[in-house]
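Supplementary Data S3. Sequence and structure tokens for construct A.
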Amino acid sequence: MTLILFSACAPIKEKAPRILWISAYYAGWTQGCKSSGHLDPEEIDYSALTHIIHFAIVPNSDGSIDFSTKCIFPENSYNLVTAAHAGRKKVLISVGGWLTEARFLDATNDINRQKFIKSLINFMISRSYDGIDIDWEPLSPLSTYQYSKFIIELRNALDQLTPRPLLTAAVKNNQPLFAELQDKFDQINILSYVLSGPRSGWITWHNAPLYDGGYRFPRTGLLVPSTDSLVNDFIKAGVKKEKLGIGIAFFGYVWSGGEGTATGGVTEPGQTWTVPPSAEEIPYYEIMEKYYQPERYRWHKPARAAYLSIDNAGSENDSFISYDDEASCKEKIAYVKKKGLGGIMIFELGGGWRPGTLIPDSLLKTINESVGNPAEPMPLDKK
């Protein structure tokens, strides 16, 4: 018989906790366009974040940069970067936004691409940012080749700098492209919101549901969009799980009116209509101030999504209001952990800011507590 002896003093190595990124967009218009804004940089709880993304500068067709349209003025950059660095958190400058594809295509063609890359890097350095976030929207198949060349050359240029700047991307489709480019990015954050609208052939559906719940479009029989389906599409294409983050929306959609549902107008997820409703994007704080009442609150278990149901007299006064709340934030963090993803992305901080309430940043605090990262996980590099 062979005896195997274990030392009572042998140290047991504990597995280090996995750090999830909490990257939050902070919009220039929230900060203020040369006037007081809704949320000042000094009011942000940087201990609840790993990264903050300043949204956004916009490409000009000649390869230069437009920083004024979305209020990224020098004083706004200085105030945010100063406050975030004091909180020992890195700040990225985002470039792009919705409907900027044509601008990107002009700025990244063979004539302008190097000028555009130099413009981005000079802007990043001059404003003391720690990296660049690319938000090319939409990214159509025709843009794939040009996007790839741009990202490869931008990453190579950033790699010449010390400390090495971060490069992240906001994405929704073109999964094979990001499988090819994933090593160029530090984060690939999926735009898993704005997943519904009152379009022809649609049903009432959530803005940012975690699951499809088995709901299908009546005409095609296809499943409705969900965070989980987007994530699975990227993983199937070959993107590593740890490279991916999912979105949490600090805004929602108010669907109003319509006719032909079981309640007259729209009030619930999964409804079809004969006369289409309208839909309006509004921030979380406005949903809570204008529409929230406890008796209107619903939790849609199949989709793991919150909503408000308002069934008034007259179809035009009915509403279905889809939004992320504390419960859906917890569900999404649990999903990220179970799925083995890299983290979450928030759009955007000002939408969740409710001054004058007991906990003015309740959504952010819920996310931070649910993630459970150790304190100060990402110290700043010395420059």
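Construct B, processed identically:
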Amino acid sequence: MYVRAMLSSTLLLALPLALAAGSASTATPVPARVVEEARNILDQMVSTDTSHGHETDALGPVVERLRAVGVNPQVLESAPGRGNLVARLRGDGTKKPLLLLAHVDVVPVEGQPWTVPAFKSTEKDGWIYGRGINDDKGQAAIFTAVFLELAREKAKLHRDVILALTSGEETGGHAGAEWLVKNHPELVDAELAFNEGGMSRLSADGDKVEYVGLGVAEKTFQSFFLTAKGPGGHSSMPSPKSDIVPHLAKALIKVGELRFPAHVLPTAREHLELLARAARPEVNAVMKKLFAGKPLTPAEDDTLAADAPRNSLLRTTCVTTMLQGSPQDNVLPTSAVATVNCRVMPDETPAGTRDRLAAAVGDPSVTVELAGDFGSAPETPRDDAFDAIYRQVASHHFPGAPVIHPFAAGASDSRFLRMKGIRAYGVLSSPATEEEGLTGHTAHGPDERRQVKWFAPNVAFLRELTRVVAM
């Protein structure tokens, strides 16, 4: 079922004449109704707090919209409240299906200093604010609006178009995409899929798209448990054996000081060279040494490590994110545990990363164990025919912006599709400036937001891409 052939050059025949001619002036304008509907769906999705489950509640309004245009979606729950919506428009079968995938869960907001309500779409000063605006309810809303338009017009499709809005991506995808692939593979079986991970960049002033991303590879997400154990007891009578937290604390300092070797992954070179040109001169010089295969001095490695966006694409990184100890302040813990989250380069392994962590800790009283298997997958193989389509659509909507294949420091649900031979791509969604990403406004941070003026162009781009590939 999951054996896939390479997309053939005949896919180029799907290009409309205007696209084949490369004329930006002939681009089909996106209907206002599609943009308005995408925005309304986004507002509805953001208003449901899905940071701790309850995705089924967020999918209810989408179900109503789909039924209104004659589509009967399925909402499959992997657990109570953990809904996954799947809907399908039938094509003539001459091509294999296209999957539009987006998750509707979001990360928590507790403890974050929001200046607007997190679970309400708020527009002010040219921005749309709300948890999930970018990650990933914005893309879910756009895919849904594009799907609804195709359903209304009863579009003549050469391939089935599948819409899948899933649960639990932010906690590993086990309640959503992974669950669907394992339990209902026939519902999401496709030749290619569009998902988050396009990572497109705006100029520093936010007025121009500098490049359009087509994501084909990402790091592996893998957490580890570092554990120190002792006999416990009363906090008034500690002993060297019972006071175990200092052992863990020393281990975590060593983890914080550990740096994995910086190196250039061939898949990422194109992306890195572009990022190097926009980097500070001293960072640019360091990256040029890496491109030339030369080792870095300690000072140069420090310079690279201080540039988070570029450093994250050049080495495996590990950081402590969670701590657990005693349940009460007058009780010595019998177990002190830290969670260390690593993002592993594709040419390295979780097991090898564990070994490096254990060697750095160097304390037999602190164990280092894998915290489950998050799953990893190879990159999506390059395909010249699909690349040509993507570049043509991009040139239509963002003239002069090159298309690159970004390498993602984060992980997405695409890995579950790639494991099964589905050609999963990260496509443009919510272009942002580098500064917005650094301040955390694009995803996971307080005051998550996107510029209003780029919402309609984002809709237009994904609409055109979907129609060209499916029709």
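The two ends are 23 Å apart (CA to CA). The first helix runs from residue 17 to 21.
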